[in-house]
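Batch manifest, entry 17 of 40.
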Amino acid sequence: MNQTYKTKALILPGTNYAEVYPLAHTIYKDIVSKSKRRPYARSPYFGGNKVFLDHFWDHIRSKNPRDRCRRLKYYACAIDLIEHSRMMDTCRLNPNRSSEMLYRFIGSDRYGNLFIVQIKENLKNKEKDFMSVFPLKG
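Output type: structure tokens
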């Protein structure tokens, strides 16, 4: 673990998916309303380029409700990290697709809870997608 971005956002409150999902989706809808096309956040780490956010919601649907809740609690923290962090932890080629680069960013909320944000970059068209966020165990 190299560097950690300390986010100003809080973990979303709630104990189950039904409580956490509306809060996370409200944050997403606010971002969607700012764009006419695909929702995105600009990242200083990538030189102010867009990181598209819609892929995350497809990914989260493939998880069970307990895991969805665990990940969605960190959604606000992940957006804050993407929009403000210049620190990256690891970067490697996707072992399943050589045309993709995977980036991992480590952040912590106000209370020191660590989480990881994963972003995928398509090397052909340089498009970046927010893939996932999850708490770091330990």
